[in-house]
């Protein structure tokens, strides 16, 4: 077996795009907008929807990962780097789960669901950054950015330095070649 299950491949790339877009919107756009800006409600609605979808897709991805056959872990020639690679994947799963949970905690403690998805015209709280889940959300997002960069650099290292065809493992095609 040289490739991951096609559903895992699809979930990997869909989630990768969703994570990068969510991090960009949260860190670059939403964090710089005033809570009084009416467009922030639209941005939050999208951000929260994508976050909840990511949580659901993460659960599905883990279920498929445990239920399907998979290729052996990638090797770099260094036992230490091989362990870092395995650990990085699991840390990213945990960070994504923590992002979803801290986002959900922020939404619940800040009363955001009826404000963002309701039609009552209620304004956003003036400052969400005093909420503990919001502080955690920001910290976890910084860690997730670092791990996404590490993961991307490692994949590029495999593909272009080691030339071991790692990208084929996480792409569609015959699983036995």
Tags for this entry?
177 residues, mainly alpha, 6 helices
Strand content: under 5%
Biggest sheet statistics: none
User: Total strand count, please?
Assistant: 0
Kindly give the count of domains.
1
Which percent bin holds the helix content? over 70%
Elements, N to C (H/E): HHHHHH
The low-pLDDT segments are none
| SS class | mainly alpha
- Quote the distance from N terminus to C terminus: 7 Å
Indicate the overall shape.
elongated
Spatial extent as radius of gyration: 19 Å
In words, what does this structure look like?
There is one protein chain. This protein is mostly helical. The protein has one domain (6-169). The protein contains six helices and no strands. It is elongated. The protein starts with 5 loop residues before the first helix and ends in an 8-residue tail after the last helix.
List the helices and strands and how they pair.
Blueprint: H1 6-29, H2 38-67, H3 79-109, H4 112-117, H5 132-162, H6 166-169
What's this, in brief?
The chain has 177 residues and is mainly alpha-helical. The chain has one domain (6-169).
């Amino acid at each position: 077996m040289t490739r991951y299950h096609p559903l895992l491949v699809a979930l990997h790339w869909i989630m990768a795009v969703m994570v990068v877009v969510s991090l960009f919107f949260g860190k670059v756009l939403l964090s710089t907008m005033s809570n009084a800006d009416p467009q922030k409600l639209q941005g939050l609605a999208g951000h929260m929807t994508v976050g909840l979808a990511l949580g659901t897709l993460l659960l599905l991805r883990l279920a498929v990962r445990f239920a399907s056959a998979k290729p052996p872990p990638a090797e770099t020639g260094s036992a230490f780097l091989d362990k870092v690679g395995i650990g990085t994947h699991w840390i990213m799963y945990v960070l994504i789960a923590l992002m979803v949970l801290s986002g959900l905690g922020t939404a619940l403690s800040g009363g955001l669901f009826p404000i963002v998805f309701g039609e009552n015209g209620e304004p956003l709280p003036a400052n969400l950054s005093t909420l503990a889940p919001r502080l955690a959300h920001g910290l976890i997002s910084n860690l997730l950015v670092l791990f996404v960069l590490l993961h991307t650099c490692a994949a590029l290292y495999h593909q272009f330095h080691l030339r071991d065809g790692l990208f084929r493992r996480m792409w569609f095609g015959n699983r036995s070649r």
